[in-house]
């Protein structure tokens, strides 16, 4: 088994989206999973702002956090933590994503970008939301039964 090209093959072809952005939030790498997930080809995405995948109403919060991370070199989302946020596709469809991030540093240790590994978790998010609603309804029904004389 020849594994010489395995890292490149994995990164380019894994089904999860892998997106790398520089310190200014400009997309520098976009794999085939990102194309599948977001609908933009690598040619369309590379060189663009991350705004192409961030819902308009969440951009300020995103950029505030991104800027702080680039300035301090620290993020609260690391070491295996998963971040769940909405994203948008090329066609404007909003969906739920979950991702982990990896800070990318230069030789001096200065943070110069971020790599994110993302996946669509819309179905799971909707299932959890529906289960929470059903559980709340069951609890209310039980409470109503126990409070009757």
UniProtKB/TrEMBL annotation:
Pfam families per the UniProt record, alphabetical: PAS_9
Superkingdom: Bacteria
PROSITE patterns: PAC, PAS
Ranges in coiled-coil conformation: none
Domain spans labelled PAS: 3-57
Domain PAC: 81-133
Protein name: PAS domain S-box protein
């Amino acid at each position: 088994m020849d594994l010489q090209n395995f890292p490149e093959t994995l990164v380019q072809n894994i089904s999860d989206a892998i997106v790398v952005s520089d310190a200014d939030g400009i997309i520098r790498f976009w794999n085939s999973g990102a194309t599948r997930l977001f609908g933009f080809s690598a040619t369309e995405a590379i060189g663009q702002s991350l705004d192409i995948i961030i819902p308009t109403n969440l951009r300020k919060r995103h950029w505030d956090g991104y800027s702080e991370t680039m300035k301090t070199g620290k993020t609260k989302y690391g070491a295996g933590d998963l971040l769940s946020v909405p994203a948008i596709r090329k066609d404007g469809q909003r969906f739920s994503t979950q991702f982990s991030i990896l800070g990318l540093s230069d030789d001096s240790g200065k943070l110069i970008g971020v790599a994110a590994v993302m996946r669509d978790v819309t179905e799971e998010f909707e299932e959890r939301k529906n289960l929470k609603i059903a559980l709340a309804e069951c609890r209310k029904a039980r409470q109503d039964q126990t409070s009757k004389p």
